[in-house]
Amino acid sequence: MNSVHFTSGMGEPAVVITRVAGRQWHAVEDDRVVGRGDASRRPDGRIFLSVDAWHGAVFDQLADAMLADLPKPLYTVVDEADPDVTSHWERVGFMTRRREWEYLVPTDPRVTGLGSVLPPSDVTIVAVGEAEEVPLRTLDRAIRDEVEAAVGWQEMLAEVLPRLDGATLRDPSKYAVAAQSDRYVGLLRVAPVTRQPRIGLIAVRSDQHRRGIARALLAHVLGSLHRGGIETASAEVNESNGAAMALFEGVGARRASSNLELVLR
């Protein structure tokens, strides 16, 4: 284990930063742990950092030790409503890469206006948990290839990123799909979080865009949640995804918070 000593104020004990495990650091002052740092590798291979420290100076010392040990680029995610934490990361060199809005989405069709929305005549909506795994995985791969060829899959949420082993779809039971003849052309992923399910992904094959399939998928899933007694769902949307923002805001969703993804290159 490597340790780095930092001098505190006059007469105060030194802060000792120690890498206690492969991806964990502790800051110790006078035999007390006064800060912790963690590095986690996301499914796409990117390394994200987190620091929990009692004082700003300890935050900087932990961050400096971690940055010295880890390869760049490095990433972190912060709540935009917490400017102090954001400024700590900016002080050690991180810059904003993107913003994600968290939306609260009503499920009542009288609010969303989706009660009468139907898919195109040649498309059928398959309910959450009823999709066949093989065509669902085929659709997932096709959509990922299209996204990668356009904006790149790193612009997607962490929960839908591919793992290092190449697997991309972990739990088929969380998906509703749009079926056309003998293939699937659209999907919507729902994470069953207690009391407020989270919509993690809505995607439609590029040759089926502008047909109302995404809206029909959303209408089906929100309607099902409403009938199950769920009043709101949540969704996270990249600020650069204008189509997704328009889709959610068009059904009465409201912005509840935002996160910033920061990067040090």
TrEMBL record:
PROSITE patterns: GNAT
Domain N-acetyltransferase: 134-265
Keyword annotations from UniProtKB, A to Z: Transferase
Entry annotated with the keyword Membrane: no
Protein's recorded name: Acetyltransferase (GNAT) domain-containing protein
Organism: Streptosporangium subroseum
GO molecular-function term, one example from the UniProt record: acyltransferase activity, transferring groups other than amino-acyl groups
Superkingdom of origin: Bacteria
InterPro entries cross-referenced by the UniProt entry: Acyl_CoA_acyltransferase, GNAT_dom
